Amino acid sequence: MIASLLLSLRVTLAALAVVIPAGAALGWWLARARSGWRRTIVDALVVLPMVLPPSVLGYYLLVLFGRHGVVGRVLAEVFGVRLVFTAAGAALAAGVVAFPLMAKGAQAAFARVERELEEVARVHGLSPWRVFREVTLPLAAPGLAVAVTLAALRSLGEFGATLVFAGYAPGATDTAPLEIFMALQTGDDARAGRLVVALTALSVATTVTLGWWTGRETRRGTAP
Amino acid sequence: MTLVVDARATVQGFALRARFTAPPGITAIRGPSASGKTLALRLIAGLLRADAGSLRFDDEVWDAPPGAWRAPERRGVGYAPQHAALWPHRTVRAQLDVIAPGRALDGLEALGVGALMDRFPAGLSGGERQRVALARALLRGPRLLLLDEPWSALDREARTTAAQLVAREVRARGIVALLVTHDTEDVDAVAERVVRAKDGVLSEG
Amino acid sequence: MTRRAPLRCLAPIALLACRREAPRPVTLHISAAISLRAPLEDLARRYEGSHPNHSLRFSFGASGDLATQIARGAPVSLFASAASEPVERLARGTRLEVICTLAGNELVLVRRDASALTDLRWDNLATHRAVERLALGVSPSVPAGVYAERCLTALGALDALRPKIVRGGNVRQVLDLVARGEADAALVYATDVRGRSDVVVVGAAPPPARPAVRYPLAWIAGGPDATEARALGLWLCGPDGRRTFLAHGFTAP
């Protein structure tokens, strides 16, 4: 059981390592881009994983990243990288479902930062990167923290797309949600129950930790 | 050091056409609301780009489509916007320090910002915020000062003090200053020249 | 005259009772191992043809999963399992009766159609370099997975192959993994690969390790339309059923 939970944590952390910066970047772009066909298309693509049922998403991941998939073929033949039946595949599935939550949450957080505050920093000598670090990021931080929390929880709980795409490979893809399902399937309700309690505790701990951190930053005065 | 403006820009359907020269000293920009005064300041600050024409300062080309462009942070401008635009998440001391690390408030004591250093903008009155914004604009020793109704929330006495301080700094450093204002008394008190703004057209009156 | 009147009143009522009633519609739910899909759908069509008021509904899946569902109260009248363990496990908590063994099957080794695997055989399976992933059914819920593990154990190859084993949720999924290239080889039933050109059959398990694949048919007591279900079960166990299973590549039980 511990192995499952540790795998879930590893998969989630791996997924977040990509989702947080990529989602924040895309969220920032969505918040700042001018409306037009480009923004509409990007927006639709970002939200797509949320719109699709998890098994359908898993299917599309197979089409793209399976052994004979458009990208998977290149990964396997050129880089020797396999995704199905690996923890990397589970992380990909978890990352894909968590990405929209991070991106849209980040978009909302950045949109709330008044442009004028950034502009006045720019005029007074701060490079765009410093403006982002000194002004935008601290002001967007509470909203970003919420986005990260939602992305992390979604990642921890990811099941459908993982099962269809990454498959069931004990030791590699048997995250806690998958193990709960398998335990219920084989009638091992006791084991399922233990995993449920543990996963619930992990989720609550994640929420509380991120909530505490946000509260601390607000009290410290780095958030409005 | 002279600012030479001869540029056109269209922003959200509003057509701006500015044509004037500003030598060292205070040049007032006067006109009714929505005549393009703030837009002109934003253009000069580099917060928006011209569609045609040019914007020069001294021997530097700041904006000349299609290719010439100098980023805002490299123009050496001090900008006090109409509603101060202080960063809510930093103390006065911290935000002044980000812009001009280690720089002391020498010469700016008259603005009375010293007493406000450890306060957050949320705890300041409108007038106090404007004084901080002015200090911020002057702190780096800018070459060009852009002031957008910078003392509208100050009472008569504070306004006079601020205006005199700005005039003194401008004279002492020989810098160019543009002052957008409604107040005719301002204009008479400190401005050496006037640019008129009407329906998006700015020209020397 | 008055004394006979009651009898005469009864006459029309007697007529009513004697009138033949139209047969009421019967729906039978059958849970069956997924490898039995083809022959059972075939048989179902024939049975529905000769019993127009019958409607046969199937749940196909891994026998272990199906047994769990029935134990949890799924309204199923017949259970065709790919092994006896799921039926035995179910019998502990559910009243049932095994009517017969429907058929048998062969466990075969299949592989991807790739040049690196052309020399794959049962005797070099444990050490073949090109076999990076061997797909089996999840154990213990998929009988094909249990049979496969027993077979490999008998060959002394299970420990060597364990790090390469990947799992499918039912035997069809296992086959699909090889077809899709996600696994290099798999152990499935001979009947699963009939007519498929996307995988290559290496061969049936060698005699000392051959598992005895048997399909018991259990009648679940207390299920809906239990009498009709029993009748269907007996028919499936009869000559029509036997002939159909053999025609689909199954062996005699």
What does this entry show, briefly?
The complex is a heterotrimer of chains A (224), B (205) and C (253). Chain B is of the alpha/beta class and 205 residues long. Helices cover 27% and strands 30% of the residues of chain B.
Features:
heterotrimer, A: 224 residues, MetI-like fold, B: 205 residues, alpha/beta, eleven-stranded mixed beta sheet, 5 helices, 11 strands
Compile the SSE list and pairings.
The complex is a heterotrimer of chains A (224), B (205) and C (253).
Chain A: H1 2-32, H2 37-51, H3 54-65, H4 70-79, H5 87-111, H6 115-123, H7 128-156, H8 160-165, H9 176-185, H10 189-220
Helix pairs in contact in A: 1-5, 1-7, 2-5, 3-4, 5-7, 6-7, 7-10, 9-10
Chain B: E1 3-11, E2 14-22, E3 25-30, H1 37-45, E4 52-57, E5 60-64, E6 68-69, E7 77-80, H2 92-99, H3 126-139, E8 144-148, H4 156-173, E9 176-181, H5 184-190, E10 193-198, E11 201-204
Parallel strand pairs in B: 2-11, 3-9, 3-10, 7-8, 8-9
Antiparallel strand pairs in B: 1-2, 1-4, 4-5, 5-6, 10-11
Chain C: H1 5-18, E1 26-33, H2 37-50, E2 54-61, H3 63-71, E3 78-80, H4 84-91, E4 96-105, E5 107-111, E6 134-137, H5 143-155, H6 158-161, E7 165-168, H7 171-179, E8 185-189, E9 200-204, E10 213-220, H8 226-236, H9 239-247
Parallel strand pairs in C: 1-2, 1-3, 6-7, 6-8
Antiparallel strand pairs in C: 3-10, 4-10, 5-8, 5-9
